[in-house]
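Write out this protein's structure.
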Amino acid sequence: MKSWRFLRCKVLFLLLLFPTQGHGQVSIQAELVLTVGSDEPVLTAALSADGRLAYAIEKTVDYGQRRQRRVEVYAMLPDGGEKKRIIPDDYFRDSEDPNRVLHVTVERLEWSPDGSRLAVEVTAQGGTATFFFKSTGGALRIRGGGNVVSGYGARWLGDNGSLGILEEAVSPRLLHRVLVLRVEAGRTIPLFRPRTFAGVAWVPGRMQVVLVERDRDFADPPRLLVGDLASGGVSDLGPEPDYLGGLRAAPDGERFSYFAGQKKLVVRKLTGAVERTISIPFTRYEWLPTGGALAYLEPQGPGLRAGWLAVWNPQTQTSERLVPEERISDFWLAPDGSHVAILTAEEVPALKVYRLQVHIP
């Protein structure tokens, strides 16, 4: 088994400096606190609200006369401390032949709001399922069953015991249906039927979800909805014929955003009122928890997934690369904005974690 090397750096980088008009300056200071790298690739990661890092790796093991690719998932404090193995490399087994370890890919990791639970989205043999684990290790059992449900895109809701989850309505994941899983009760509740959706964004801290409705034939223009996860009711905000994708709910629970052009991000209130438009590339992005700033992956070129981590400043309405020396393929923000993890765009990707100090006057 190849070892993992953890590197702590105490060099403080001033990575972002924005001039403002009469209000001092907006800055983000970042300290590199952890590097995870080896001959085996990191697949994905997630940061919890209480400051822990979860990450999945793919490793090669000798199995009889063959070599197999397997996955493991670990959790640890990014500022130091012992790592905890949540999923060992022989966990995922064939239900019909328990002696056979499956080759799977970990697509996503999702912490519960209190950091006590971890949802792990796994793809194997053409299907996707979500497994549930305790943050201390061990399976989190759903009442009346095991620790797995079919579906993808899971997001823990504010009560820590329920998840929003998606199932495929039109292949390949062109349209989705929405469900809520009550883990303790062992109940899965389908919502908003027979509607189908091209975009779904769970509203933080609320039993609400922002939806982009599309009919199965894609004949009618997209419609923006806000759904109530408790009652199953919806509020129709009207059509949005320019919708392209990238639906996100802001951390304040009051706004949502989506792309309506290759360089046009629209920000709306949950009432539907347009607040502003932002000029950033059509790419992966996340809201910072305070100040209305956005972090996004600035593509290296058209159609490329690799690029640089950039931040859009709402005061100056300009962007700046956050870690200009690192070319990345993905990133993950902590819910409180205390840390950011980046996955480097190398032949064998490394995972690096920075502690952030954000100052927005």
